[in-house]
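Researcher: Next sequence.
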Amino acid sequence: MKTWYQSLQVAFTFIGTVVGAGFASGREVMQFFTRFGHWAPLLIVLATSFFVWIGAKVMLVAAEIKAKSYEDLNKHLFGERYGRWVSHGMLLVLIAVNAVMLAGAGSIFSEHLNLSYQSGLLITMFACYAVLQNGMKSIMTINTFVVPVMIVFTAVLLFDTLASPGTDHRAALGVDVSPWAAWLSPFLYAAFNLAMSQAVLVPMGSAVADPKILRRGAWLGGIGIGLMLLAGHLTLAARMPGIAEFEIPMGGIALEFGAWIHWIFVLLIFMEIFTTLVADVFGLTLQIEERIHMSKKLIIGVLLLFCFFVGQFGFGPLLSTLYPLFGMLSLGWLFLMGRDKALQGGVRPPSPPIP
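Model: Next structure:
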């Protein structure tokens, strides 16, 4: 029972790291899947297979080489010299992604809580700074609570959507888009999210170390991400194109259920954004600390302040511009991670049966 609980903690942290501002708000699902119409379910299945396979490999390799941060993993994949440069690039990308997370929190405050965008940024910054004082333990604890509740509410929205007339027809509509763009989308989505998740998956893999727990956690987490993607897609597709006008589409859908459900769901969306922001800033802090001699508290403060200034561009423009671009940049990392053969000892890539 203890190992299963630890596997669930790994799985929930994996899900919570991926389910960030873009995913929880619905913008990311719409950008990479829903806009491709009847192709979307197949694209989601393909992306899910990458999350299970590569997610497991990241944690298993990290445990095998005893990586302290994602730079150790990149040096393992690309060599000492190029691994350092890849890590420099990922450092900049992660900082930009954190700015998107913070902007997403600001949009929730302005669009659904009748507070100013700037208030949302500042409140989220201070809360993130406070939580990060307890490190990885607090990150796993928060995700163990937030992710299951988010799954339940996503399921509620899905069941209501499926019960509505005309849902099957709208979700199966074809769209006038390039097949190349459609089939490239799950690679971009998985590459981007897995590359960014290194900041958490690598130190977690080293901390847990047990291959059985990590492998099982990757399966549970990867499949959980896939099911949430599918549920989010079906919920959004049934309300297209009108729902695309919202900065936070899932929050707009929650309005249909009345005030109480709307407030609870908006809070959950915020918590999902918040948990990813906390996890990514934690990983960045570890990485920067290896390069410069500065206190963790100061590094966290500087990172959050930088994200505040970048966040002034707004959530929608940042996500739609940066995420596909970062996905393209991450494809090389995904390829090298998939072909890595350097696992030794008792650590092996995951096989279909869950131990």
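Model: The radius of gyration is 19 Å. The CA atoms of residues 138 and 296 lie 16 Å apart.
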